[in-house]
Structures
1.
Amino acid sequence: MAPILQLRAVKAFYGQSEVLHGVDVAVEDGGMTVLLGANGAGKTTTLRAICGMVRSEGEIVFAGRRLERLSTEDIAGLGVAHVPEGRGTFSDLTVEENLRLGGYTRRSGAQASMQRMFGHFPILAARRQQQAGALSGGEQQMLAIARALMMAPRLLVLDEPSFGLAPRIVEEMFAILDRIRHEENVSVLLVEQNASLALSLADHAYLIETGYVVASGSAKSLADDPQIRRSYLGY
Amino acid sequence: MHQFLQQVFSGLASGAIYASLALALVMIYRATDLVNFAQGEMAMFSTYIAWTLVQAGLPFWAAFVLTLAISFLGGLVIERVVIRPVENAPVLAAVIVTIGLLLIFNSLAGWIYSYTVQDFPSPFPDRPVLGALMTTRDLGVVAVTLVMLLLLFSFFRFTTTGLAMRAAAQNPASARLCGIRVGRMLAIGWGLAATIGATAGMMVAPVLFLDPNMMGGVLLYAFAGALLGGITSPVGAVVGGLIVGVTENLVGTYLIASQLKLTVAFIVIILVLVVRPNGLFGTAVVRRM
């Protein structure tokens, strides 16, 4: 399988300071790749570099297109759906309006997609006229994912979707995600603190430390690595 | 009693104009966190464009519609050329830019049209209606304002572009991730604000007469209305504008000489800032440290 997303020697900058020092990351078409690492390692920055939200150097290729010079809006239009840290829902708008915005770049099929999302996430159908800000944390995260999928993306980029959620909700959310990523035919790049859960779902994994990729391989091989087990899995 | 009601209704007519301009201020403020001090002068300049078109022989309503279109484009251009470069500048720099715009439009109008007061035609006849509570002219002003507000609210409520504009104003980063061109939305916002202002200018000009300083007082009342309603609330801007219009009229009739009416605007502004800084409908901006 050819990768749908390929990062080669990508550096990223906040102002003058370089926070990614040349990372290589790939996401297989139809696969799920997870980025692991401590806080401040550069995981979120990697995602932001992909979506043109920070200045970057190096090569970012998505479905045969170079992304580095494109704006965030254009990258979204190409089919990269990014659910940012903190979910990024429009809290003053209703659930339905949030979903409509997800389908903003599409010429057709948004209505059918919305019905499918209500099927995947029944709670959103029940809350469709409520303001997004009135939803619980878990519901908001599901709304954020559903909104991203409304773009009919080829790549779904998720930044710590489990953040601040109860473990039961996290498991439920990942169960839904694991099911629908095949139905929606979308590849996934995931940043996640819950390493054991993420490694059980993903097929590839990268370990990032202080702006470098320090380990990579199949999710299984990383889950079996004694040092990673000690540092990130805790057993 | 009849006189009181008369004053209330005539206050509603001027309130409708303040409400329009207040709405334009609120739209820009929500989208860019910027108070556009040039809003009044932009409206005045639009009104001069309408006046020119009428002088050239166009029927009033044709000139009206054409002026709205020109004003929309003008607002768009102002955002692109003047506001965009200071988008990420400190807010004070942006405020200075809008004050600069105010002076430019004022001087430009004076230079082109001179400071002589001009008569501006009203499309509405001036007859008493509703048992002499209102004139047809006031009624016309209120009707035009209501139609404009209705169109505007429908635009934001029902169209995809309107929804995208609300999204861009609320959370620009997320809007970009949805593929919304936030810059374009801001430009449309300026265009719409200029159009609303143009309507207000053309409605008020028959009463105030047209000169480059025509909108100075109106802008102050509009500020008072916007603040009273809560600077972040479009509904608040409309309600606030109407309240200010009625209050101004009643105070001018019963309490103080009408030459001192403008103080009402300042008193409202000061009272709101002291007693209820978020206004009637505004929400407090809370930022976690």
Note: The first helix of chain A runs from residue 43 to 50.
2.
Amino acid sequence: MKAEWFKGAADAAALQGSSSRRGFLKAGAAATGGLVLGFMLPGAGRLARAAEAKPAVVAPNAFVRVAPDNTVTVIVNRLEFGQGVHTALPMVIADELDADWRQMRSELAPAADVYKDPVFGMQITGGSGTIAHSFTQYREVGARARAMLVGAAAAQWKVDPARCRTDKGVVIGPGGQKATYGELADAAARMPVPQAVTLKDQKQFRYIGKPMPRLDARAKSSGRQQFGIDLHPQGTRVAVVAHPPVFGAKVAKFDAAKARAIRGVVAVLEIPVDRGGRGVVVIADGYWPAKQGRDALAIEWDTSAVEKVDSARQLAQFTELSKTPGAVARQADVSKLAGAPKKISAVYEFPYLAHAPMEPINCTVDLKDDSCTLWVGSQYQTGDQAAAAATAGLKPEQVTLHTVMAGGGFGRRAVPSSDFVVEAVNIAKAYKAAGHQGPVKMIWSREDDIKGGYYRPSHVHRADIGLDAKGNIVAWDHVIVGQSIMAGTPFEAFMVKNGVDGTMIEGMGEPYGIPLNLTAHTAKANVPVLWWRSVGSTHTAYVMETLIDEAAHAAGQDPVAYRKKLIDAKHARHHAALDLAVAKSGYGKNKLPKGHAWGVALHESFNSVIAYVVEASVKDGVPRLHKVTAGVHCNLAVNPLTIEAQIQGAALMGLGTTLPGAAITLKDGVVEQQNFGDYVVARMNEMPQIEVHVVPSQDAPTGMGEPGLPPLAPAYANALFKLTGKRLRKLPFDLASA
Amino acid sequence: MVTLNINGRDQQVDADPSTPILWALRDNLNMTGTKFGCGAALCGACTVHLNGDAIRSCVTPISAAAGQKITTIEAMEADKVGKAVQDAWVKHDVPQCGYCQSGQVMSAAALLRTNTKPSDTDIDNAMSGNICRCGTYQRIRLAIKDAAKTLA
């Protein structure tokens, strides 16, 4: 998701007054005392108004709480699922608040209007947008809280606040008076919230820009961190669902006798599932009896009314479609193609990919007559809350959604259809209707996850490129075929333009000065698709960066020099990132071990530019990635330690897409893969050494969660070309048949 | 009723003998530090020690563990090797989402108990059964080597 696509949504949200800038900050006291600083929205939901009327309640509008015990808790308006916002946003507040890092704590915000992403206008964690969109928002909160603490101290000491200063959680008066933030918290809660605050000069940053360790590292190294799947509200039972083998299929009949006979099984019920399908849920005292119960079900499925996708057939269809132009995304003159002295013609294939986050999909629901409480690792609280309400037949304000720490997601926990949240609420409804009460925790097995859909869509790209005698690209005709992620979702209105889904073509063309004529076919298939870490760039970067490399070789030029010639001076960040990766890797200077080769790729996504220089080899036909040197341009580097982690992680996920077995395929409508045995992801023995270098900058920070992924696979492929002379047009890699 | 010795304490578990140790820990004993990742011994998130060896608790039934010593992530802070591993994990800022890390720590602790100076290949062999989708492997490798030094 890109900020600009959401401009329409954000504008609409601003008109409705739900942009945070239209709201106002309000101080209140927590039930336990201390200062709570939160946003209040005029005309916002019932909860915010209730909080305003009763400030003694810990309200779901808080952004920071300074407690009398001297802790400072930052409420994070996103999901933490590895990307580090649970540490980055506290850093931002701690800096402007001038707090001591040791007093900082973090908490995830529940669903509420005040926590909407200020750019997207909805509460969503995506588009690598947390720091990019909420950096200033959180700085301002920190600065205001600081001003109130200083004001409280100055009032106590009867001095001019301007003569007070702060240092690591202590206000220091002109006469050397000292008071900790904790001591001042109650008094600060009664101070007016300043209208305007001056933010720090970047030179004054104490934490921002420094490698700060994660606040959750200890909890996550000791098993103490609780994830959604670990929560067990009083009386919770576990639900495991038998999903139809083909998306949207129905239950013809089922026999639950054997399932019901299993000790601990409480209920077996037929429920609606995603895409109009039906499933059978087994609810039991724990996961094991529920799973055993599901395995014991005898279900006859009715797949007669649904399309049964076959991957081989789909590939043939997509390939055929790619021979004709699709809807126009970008126009250029391709008349020079026919007479060009050199030509490159290529067809690329990309499979469906599952996100497969380590924590299996789960959602706990406590449904009552007039309320519904959810505990879910949601990337999309606004949509999930609304979908839960609609499913339960309640109003959104009757639904409380607790955002809980999630074990990965990569996009799978932000679903426009809210598929698994709706499924969990449907289970709770059926459970309640059958006379039961109490919370139900739906847990998907890994097989449910791998087979459960919402994949990165499969694609075919066809490129016809003409080069002149000097190797300049004189024409580039390009067709993309794939399913639209956005069609049929609430995002379609502003993300599908002229029949082209923006997510299918993002990353094509830029930053190169090339005459690219680009069209796209939107194919339909009974396979649910979704954004997958870095979205369209997962395939467009591969195609662009391997083709540019191929053009450089056709021109007989060095791929780095060729790229730099094709990128104009306006793209200074691209040059800087590429130059840094080249310099730090020793590309073109250092001698590589025998049998090793360099590969280069460069890509911008989510407004950050990543260049990779990689070193690879092939031994006995098996490719191996040894080393990756990253040049990163993300403007101001808020937490270099997290940036390094995100690049290492995204690069590894990119490497994962090249490994044999990294593909979801279907036969007769049934997903053929089951688990990590046949859906391959990268493991320790595949990990290359990754060095991360960041271009220094003071500009407003840009995304970091996703941009490290796209350029890895093409850089690796470019190195393998040098070693084998083979252009790998298909992911995952298959050197033998290339 | 099956008696399990967990972290040095005998505990009664009222569950079907086929129940994997993982689910006895999580659902019967409310010990949620051990994670469910795949249910098929393919990802390592559920790794615990059985008599000191790393095993996948998601496929090991409680009937096979009666009378033997099960050690879980919850006991690692009080364990010399486990504590060194956890400290190295924090020092190197290893976790991202953190979901797989209980299993990673358990596999690393089992490795370091028998191999005080693991090579890269030793680490690959001991740790490749533990999947991390966030890609923390490089820091895990550094942390294991660091923990080995601290323990030497």
Note: Strands of chain B lie at 2-6, 9-13, 47-50, 53-56, 69-71.
